[in-house]
Amino acid sequence: VGDEPIRFDTFAETNSVVRRYADATFGSLAGTITAASSREGAAIIGGQEWQGVRLLFLDMSSMSSTGTFKDWVACVTIGCCLEENCQTFITQSSGNTANALAYYAGRAGIEVCILYPAESRYKINSKLAGQDGITFVEVVGGEPMVKLCAEALEDATGLRWLPTLDLQRIGNGLRADFVNEFLAVRGEVIDWHAQALSSAFGPLGFYGRLEVLAERREWHGAVPRFLGVQQEAVSPYYDQIYGHAAWSDASKMVIEPTLFRSNPGNVLVDGVRRICDASRGRIMVLRNDEYFDRRSAAVGLLEAAGLHPTQRKKPDGTFGFLEEAGGISVAGVLSEIDAGRIRPGETVLIAVTGGFCPRTDELFEPELQIGGGEWRHQLDQLGRQVST
Ligand SMILES: Cc1ncc(COP(=O)(O)O)c(C=O)c1O
Fold this sequence. Notes:
Elements: E1 11-13, H1 17-20, H2 22-26, H3 30-35, E2 42-50, E3 53-59, H4 70-84, E4 88-92, H5 96-108, E5 111-117, H6 126-129, E6 134-139, H7 142-157, E7 160-161, H8 165-186, E8 192-196, H9 201-215, E9 225-231, H10 236-242, H11 266-279, E10 282-286, H12 288-304, E11 311-313, E12 319-321, H13 325-338, E13 347-352, E14 369-370, H14 375-387
Parallel strand pairs: 3-13, 4-5, 4-7, 5-6, 6-14, 8-9, 8-13, 9-10
Antiparallel strand pairs: 1-2, 2-3, 11-12
The structure holds pyridoxal-5'-phosphate.
């Protein structure tokens, strides 16, 4: 076998989960939605054990067009734009959805204005951002400022802010069809389903679709218990669901700026509370020291399954991981196993949402930036530019 890592127990859709489940999910719209499709591949791999617990990785990164699970949502979003003849829209993102939307919109000739926080600049793919009709705008002032600017831009232009919550649910619902097929074909049982959280769109889509399949008696097996993993600096779901208002500690280092949603609002919090209750799951906070203690073990497990994290060149010339969300999910699970809260004999499906894609070392240089005392004026100018 040599030094090549083993990808064992692979159950894969190497081409497109969107196309694979289009008829079941989109009905008469399947033709237009799949017209937007590029590569939205996925695989379930692994089978290694940690303290007697079996770990399966749901790889939604290495076979996707821009390297994250956001491609599925971006594909469905652009498919809907084609269906509804929507030529231009606005959006906000901490980076990965931005790249995904830029890619799928660019291919379809649809225009989009994307606001992203300065902290995520290193995620932005300069080739995707440089396409005609794609406008990237850097916002200084963190998540609240990005949201404020997106709302103001929506008001000023009258353009739609996509993807809507429904599109997030539909795009991420495909995960349930894929996992369900794996369970049926392999006769497998999954006890837990874990993912690092930002807005929780992924799990909300997954459990929403699972519920529909279960009502139709089409879901194979039991409902996997949900484990949502939050980093120490940004843990609103944990805080709001369990009432630990003081847990989120903004003074702590943000390990992964993509996981930036600090104030998800009642609809999303209630949704996450409901899936925790319905699946007998929970939200956990992975403290930074726990993460750093387990990161090399987590990466070792991913590498043994054939998943090599993409490195990025930092401005100081050193290298780091492009995306920590996959590592955070795995480390969170290891921490729960070590604490005895996931038991020997159980199987955990860990969502690897990003971080395993071709590397680009070219750093993005923004042409447009909004922030500081002049932000309203800058936004007005942007609104006029986007509308014309
Ligand atoms: C790579 C990656 N993982 C995880 C997440 C969290 O996604 P959500 O909480 O919306 O399911 C994001 C969202 O930005 C992401 O880009």
